[in-house]
Amino acid sequence: MAKIVVALDVEIQDAHKLIKVLSKEIEYYKIGHKLFTNNPEILTEINALGKKVFLDLKYHDIPSVVGLAIKAVTEKYKPFAITLHTSGGPKMMQEAVKAKNDLAKDLRPLLFGVTVLTSLGAEDLKALYGITQPLEDVVINLAKTARTCGLDGIVCSGRELPLVKKECGKEFLTLVPGVQLAAENFRSDQNRTASIEDLAGIGDYFVIGRQITGASNPAEMAGKILNAIK
Ligand code: C5P
Q: Packing angle between helix 135-149 and helix 161-168, nearest 10 degrees?
């Protein structure tokens, strides 16, 4: 069954409250730049509760620098999973995998490569790189390259998820943000969003932030979403 990863893009006090009220429903939390910058100890606290962290810093640099970053952050904070940009290139991804495999077995994080950010659209790819191919083709190309380089999975939008699974195989993991339960005040303030009901049974990890963290009853909302993807 797919897993929900709750994005803690909130103040630290609220993060603590949320982890407490969601303790029954949620095992996975996504920590991004905000909390990692101000309160990196949250990773150790989440681990101590027996929960798991997706550290979403989206690494993108020359291969050696990314390799060193993955080693350092894993040894210090022991995240369950780390994100990096596939657009950093094959050598960067291979170096990330090597850094991971050089770590003790019980420390090794899952590595997820961001394909095309869900905030971008086809017109952005054209403006940035002169790419005129359909966006899905770009995502599939990046996903296949990430798989060849040994990453555990990729980050893509819900719109490309079925195609990624078809092209890259079931075992290659997916982390999908920008999804919401459509039945509940669906916001469409983002590009390439999708309703989670439509993706039931397809993906591995779905990232949900504000629909849970901003709910009047976060645990109840998490329960509803888990039900919808059963
Ligand atoms: O929109 P929501 O609050 O659910 O966002 C949760 C997380 O998902 C954010 O931390 C962001 O990194 C990611 N996100 C995304 N693409 C979107 C919406 C959110 O990558 N379209």
A: 40
Please tell me the number of Cα atoms within 13 Å of 168 on its side-chain side: 31
Each domain of the chain, given as residue ranges in start order, spans: 3-228
Of 136, 172, 138, the C-alpha closest to 153 is 172
In degrees and rounded to multiples of 5, residue 104 shows phi and psi of -60, 145
Q: How far is the CA of 105 from the centre of ligand 1 (A)?
A: 30
Residues with CB under 6 Å of ligand 1 are 7, 9, 32, 118-119, 177-178, 190, 193, 207-211
- pTM value is 0.96
- Cα torsion 29, 32, 34, 35: sign: positive
Q: Which tens digits make up the pLDDT trace of 179-202?
A: 999 877 666 556 677 899 899 899
Question: What type of residue is 4?
Answer: I
pLDDT digits (tens, 9 = 90+) for 74-89: 999 999 999 999 999 9
For domain 3-228, the CATH superfamily is: Aldolase class I (3.20.20.70)
Examine the residue annotation and report whether 58 is marked as an active-site residue of this protein: yes
